[in-house]
Specification:
This protein has helices at residues 2-27, 329-339, 418-425, 450-464; strands spanning 32-42, 47-48, 53-64, 75-79, 83-93, 96-99, 107-110, 122-132, 140-151, 154-155, 161-168, 183-191, 196-199, 202-206, 209-215, 217-224, 231-237, 242-248, 258-265, 270-273, 276-280, 283-288, 291-298, 305-311, 316-322, 344-350, 355-358, 361-365, 368-370, 376-383, 390-396, 401-407. By secondary structure, the chain is mainly beta. It has 3 domains: 31-168, Sandwich (Immunoglobulin-like); 183-322, no CATH class; 329-411, Immunoglobulins (Immunoglobulin-like, Sandwich). The chain has a 7-stranded mixed beta sheet, with no helix packed on it. Strands 2, 4, 7, 9, 10 and 11 form a 6-stranded mixed beta sheet that branches. A hairpin with a 6-residue loop joins strand 23 and strand 24. It starts with a helix and ends with a helix.
Length: 467
């Protein structure tokens, strides 16, 4: 019996050593750094309290030393004095842009889940916060944005950056609500290059050029180059995306007719101009009389497009159409429900597969979308094993569409008990949600569940030291 006890304690000693190895990346600080290299603020002139709408954009690099990723223990914390702020975080890695969920609080925290990237790489992070200058009783210095990388021992050296401004006091002023208009970007090329760009009649430089903060929706611009016909192009700008536009300029010939080039996404759409079929996209229609023409584009499975195009004598006009998918019966039902005042709540989490309980009733695992909540006050609670529960109370108006999202961070990570770790190291699965060391779950032939996949990913990242 004594020998068996010695063997048992010796095995548990090995298990504790193995645990320290697994959790070592979470305890030891990794050599990741955040470099804030530019902060812009608009407007650059007077900022009047409770009247001026302010837009602040910070550009930074998240990079690693010694080929280690962003530390799972660290977070990137940002806060502002602006009133009613909305944060727009955007990641860029090897040319791929990822928009993180919007936040609408004074302080936001990006965790290692948000900032994960391959070891030894460099990641660009752009964060924009929009809000109103806070109301003040006298001229005061206020912080437009404050950025710092934090570890369990405090702020990481050389990462703390701020942008401050003087907010002026003016008595008797009230702010005017400015509607938030989503914007995108246009990257314009021409052959030959050097053509001057006129967007809605405003000179925007010469090709090639990228135009930022263009209001989402349909817009038109004209390219002008001496010796060539003006080219007028229409394009659909997509919110928070860059649309590529290229065109071949036509040398001046004195012709009394014009041409129209039509492209669609997806291609293969049927084209009708002034009621006459013209084939499928992409296509070019020549010998058109100057003036306005009616264009109809249709494609199976997509909503038809109808609009007017303007043709100039001797010129070539281009029309780029981004077709929208046709509404499914389910989405049509949702649209009808919204018109009738039915609410809609979308709940997501990072990582996914968190339990969702609304008003004490279980609703499934994230992501979930609820259409049955009545207008009024509700409470949602998200739970994920090893992490601190998240709870939020919100009020729904009739017909309101609300999005709720929460990122569980390693800063909230709860170390499981020794018995649970002993069970895991012995090859047993961890129970849901309580951790029992000696009982093995019944195995299923249907493959891992969403929750099991989330566990595997969580444990893998703890073991590898990745965020």
């Amino acid at each position: 019996m004594k020998v068996l006890k010695e063997i048992s304690w010796k095995s548990r000693g090995y298990a504790i050593v193995a645990l320290l190895v697994v959790l070592a990346p979470c305890v030891a600080p990794a050599g990741a750094m955040v470099n804030v290299w530019r902060i812009l603020a608009e407007p650059e002139g007077e900022i009047i309290g409770n009247q001026t709408f302010v837009v602040v954009t910070a550009y930074m690099d998240v990079y690693s030393e010694d080929k280690v990723t962003f530390s799972p223990d660290n977070t990137l914390r940002m806060w502002t004095d602006l009133a009613d702020p909305v944060w727009y975080p955007q990641l860029s890695y090897e040319g791929k842009i990822t928009d993180l969920p919007l936040r609408s609080t004074r302080t936001i925290v990006l965790s290692s889940w948000d900032l994960s990237y391959p070891a030894g790489g460099r990641e660009a992070l752009k964060v924009t916060v929009k809000g109103w200058a806070p109301g003040v009783g006298s001229d005061q210095q206020k912080t437009l944005i404050h950025i710092a990388e934090e570890s369990p021992r405090g702020i990481v050296n050389h990462t703390e950056k701020s942008r401050v401004a003087t907010v002026l006091f003016r008595s008797g002023v009230l702010r005017e609500e400015i509607p938030e208009v989503p914007t995108g970007s246009l990257h314009i090329n021409s052959a030959p290059p050097g053509a001057r760009i006129f967007l809605e009649g405003v000179d925007k430089g010469v090709t090639p050029a990228t135009l930022d903060r263009v209001p989402a929706g349909n817009c038109s611009f004209t390219l002008s180059l001496p010796g060539y016909h003006n080219a007028t192009l229409s394009v659909s700008v997509l919110a928070r995306q860059t649309v590529e536009v290229s065109t071949q300029l036509v040398e001046s010939t004195g012709s009394s007719t014009g041409s129209l080039v039509i492209e669609t996404t997806p291609a293969g759409a049927a084209v009708t101009l002034d009621g006459n079929e013209q084939g499928t996209t992409p296509c070019t229609i020549d010998a058109l009389t100057p003036g306005f023409h009616t264009l109809v584009v249709s494609h199976d499975g997509y909503q038809p497009f109808e609009g007017e195009v303007k043709i100039a004598a001797g010129g070539t006009s281009s029309k780029s159409v981004h077709l929208l998918p046709a509404a499914s019966p389910e989405m049509a039902s949702i649209s009808t429900s919204r018109e009738q005042g039915v609410t809609e709540v979308s709940i997501t989490s990072s990582p996914p597969a968190a339990d969702v309980v609304v008003d004490g009733e279980y609703k499934g695992l994230t992501p979930v979308r609820l259409y049955s909540l009545s207008p009024g006050t509700h409470t949602v609670e998200l739970t994920l094993p090893f992490c601190t529960n998240y709870r939020e109370t919100f009020t729904l108006s009739p017909g309101e569409h609300r999005e709720i999202t929460h990122a569980f961070s390693f800063g909230e990570f709860q170390v499981p008990g020794v018995d649970a770790i002993w069970g895991f190291l012995s090859g047993l699965k961890i129970g849901l949600p309580s951790l029992s060391g000696g009982e093995e779950e019944e195995k299923s032939d249907t493959g891992p569940t969403d929750r099991e996949k989330a566990y595997e990913e969580l444990l893998k990242q703890v073991g590898d030291g990745e965020g």
